[in-house]
Amino acid sequence: MDAYGTDSDARRGPDGPGGAPDPGEAPEADGPSEPDGSPEADGPREPDGRSDLDGSPAADGGPKRIAGSKRIAGPDTGGADLGAWPPAGAAPAPAPAPAPAPAPAPAPDSTSASTSDPGPHLAPRTGVAALSPRYQIGAALALAVVAVVVCVHVGMVFLHVAPANTLTKAHGKAIDDWIYPEFEQNWKLFAPNPLQQNIALQVRAEVQAKNGELRSTGWYDLSAEDGRAIDGNLLPSHTQQNELRRAWDFFVATHDSTNRSTGLRGTLSESYLRRIVMLRLDRDDLSGNGGVIEQVQVRSRTTNVPPPKWSTEKISDKPMDRVLPWWPVTAADTDGGAE
Predict the structure, then answer these.
(1) How many CA atoms lie within 13 A of 336 on its CB side?
(2) Range scoring the smallest mean pLDDT among 28-32, 182-186, 210-214, 235-239
(3) Which of 6, 125, 173, 245 is deepest in the core (most CB within 10 A)?
(4) How far is CA 202 from CA 17, 241, 277, in A?
């Protein structure tokens, strides 16, 4: 059957057979079809998402319709045509409602994104920055304590080697307690006025002979003995170079010009110097056969270093002696006791 032919079952106008709609039946609004060659408009979808052209029941409870099918007027259909074109006189179908706009996607959480996925552009943290805030505070406090201790130590060493001033006079004991004995300094070689004197340490003893007679020895130049041991020696020992000199510097630093101790370290410096002297005298067998050293006396002889020939400086060449009192010898001053 040709829908476009001239057959008796062909489509008629509104007044033709099967062309007039039933007065009591509302015409179906299928919506206008697009012209040939344009996309088909299925019309608004039902609430369940199905169109009336996909086999779902019609709005008036009529039979299901299959998408793309047409009802052709004829004896079996009652003349109803549900084709692409609405019957004449039918009200146009309302325009389909626009589809709702999709909801915008939620914005990503910047906080969670930065913590969970730092991204390839962020370098990993190292060092103190990689620690938690609690450990960062602890590390900062530890560094601050170390910095304070270093600053205090540098200040104490500076005051110790600096010339006498107001601070050293007011806090000399605290400075000495910090420096001695671990951080003792001796920068005379690099001082603005380096040492220009020769200091020789000499000793004499009072010996009791085997028959009970007391005699005093002459002055033994201990510094000269060390000098002879160093001369011509490519590898002199530390003892030969520094032991006697450091012992005398220790004594002078802890005693005043009248040879009185200025602190608790004064007694220690006396014992140290006396023991070194006794070891030297025993090595030279000064007491003789059967003799006993009863007491010793130490003195320092200081002579100025003569200036060079081209200098016009005038200095005294007279030696200056500093004589200490007689010290009794005890068993602690010798190896195995005084003999």
Answers:
(1) 2
(2) 28-32
(3) 245
(4) 156, 16, 9
Query: At residue 86, what is the residue type?
Result: P
* CB-facing half-sphere around the CA of 331: CA atoms within 13 A: 2
d(CA 106, CA 121): 24
Q: Distance between CA 201 and CA 16 in Å, rounded?
A: 153
Name the residue among 319, 322, 295 with its Cα closest to residue 306: 319
pLDDT tens-digit series, residues 271-310: 999 999 999 998 888 877 778 899 999 999 999 988 888 8
Q: How many CB atoms are closer than 10 A to CB 240?
A: 15
Per-residue DSSP letter, 124: P
Mean pLDDT of all residues in 51-55: 45
Sign of the Cα torsion 277, 278, 281, 286 reads: positive
d(CA 339, CA 326): 18
Is residue 327 very low, low, confident or very high in pLDDT (cuts 50, 70, 90)?
A: very high
- List, in sequence order, every residue forming a beta bridge with 207; answer none if it has no partner: 215, 293
Burial class of 203 by CB neighbour count within 10 A (0 to 12, 13 to 18, 19+): buried
Q: CA nearest 301: which of 236, 220, 206, 238?
A: 220
pLDDT in tens, 149-205: 999 999 998 988 888 888 888 888 899 889 887 787 766 656 566 678 899 999 999
